[in-house]
User: What shape does this take?
Amino acid sequence: MGRTLYDKIWDEHVVHTEEDGTAVLYIDRHLVHEVTSPQAYEGLRQAGRKVWRVSSVVATADHNTPTTGWERGYAGIADPISKEQITTLDANIAEFGAAAFFPFLSQRQGIVHVIGPENGATLPGMTVVCGDSHTSTHGAFGALAHGIGTSEVEHVLATQTLLAKKAKNLLIKVEGQLAKGVTAKDIVLAIIGRIGTAGGTGYTIEFAGSAIRALSMEGRMTVCNMAIEAGARAGLVAVDDKTIDYLKGRPLSPNGVEWDQAVAYWRSLHSDPDATFDTVVELDATKIVPQVTWGTSPEMVLGIDARVPDPDKEKDASKRGAIERALQYMGLEPGKPLNDIFVDKVFIGSCTNSRIEDMREAAAMVKKLGQKVAKNVRLAMVVPGSGLVKAQAEREGLHEIFKAAGFEWREPGCSMCLAMNADRLEPGERCASTSNRNFEGRQGAGGRTHLVSPAMAAAAAVHGHFVDVRTLA
Ligand SMILES: CC(C)[C@H](C(=O)O)[C@@H](O)C(=O)O
Ligand code: SF4
Assistant: This one.
């Protein structure tokens, strides 16, 4: 019987399965950041344990790092708790070791889900874990990657294994060509709009179809990044030439004979033609329009040509209540066209959309519009996902386009994706954001988040309100 890509990677890594289905899974790559690792290392220390396979660990500081003031070094980290988390990671890696460590201020530092792939730390067929829910991102490389909790971080550090139960297989097929201006972010928001934030619960999602094949690796990472917002712990895309080309020559990628052997294996990393999925969902890419979230969950999303929903039209009482609460929090009136929503801040960044292609997409929109950030927008910021992305963008002159238009060009990190560092929304502020979560208070207490693509965020910054980027071509 044919196997899915998920089945194949799972089978390769199972060490043992209990009668109730609980499996011991071997872990190839462990990505570590400063938020979810301190207690795990402390646990090892107290038990007198070492890290089982130091060469599997790749670490960086990202959530708490400031995006300004790097010239002041560690003194530039204003918040004492942030500073402590960052220095604790430094000390833990110094004591326990890692294959690679990109600390605060280093040139390769960045968001863990950006630096993993760009350094070749994420390879096809691997099991990848990180104490972070957006680890699903790495599934874009045909790796089985998912987030784990702090106690599991300790377990993996100590044993190189994870206890897990196999999920079901969900195939999401997106067929057809995207319209101009419609991007990977719009695909994944449209998927979540369709299946809901619980649609993928209990599944590993494989994203397939011609629209997914046509995406760059960056685009595939954007899609897999938000698999977790669709309820699935892991998302996958089959390996193809793009995957292999992306990885060639990366610092931690294999080379020489090992590269050839690896590529031969990687080419088997796709679902067999006769593989069966527990559930199949199909989307027509030609019908996807630029998406904007209007509420406080990623599933509260509509095309830019829509209006804010009217709770009175919802028959289901609990859904009606959810819409009412969301609209109240978001300060929105039913029936308002989405393109009449004005924003106070714009954030282009996060592990969803801070790679070089996202920077290019946003810069191209700013350049095309040829105007400055609108007067009503208090702050428009672009935060590259890593030091390497920043350097590449600067080589291409993208920072000059942003700065000339009035955007701030910052140092890499999670930044305003979540309020764990100095970048945040003030109560009541409304933000066009390229991140992945729009929960209440996510970007700061009382802050209002609208999730969009980089092109949509750039256009909102210049116009001061949302606009359909398809009309700007
Ligand atoms: C801080 C971390 C544990 C968290 C996560 O797991 O995703 C964060 O990255 C987020 O995006 O909410
Ligand atoms: S950028 Fe945002 S979603 Fe991604 S790891 Fe950082 S906080 Fe989490």
Summary: The chain has two domains: 1-288, 291-472.
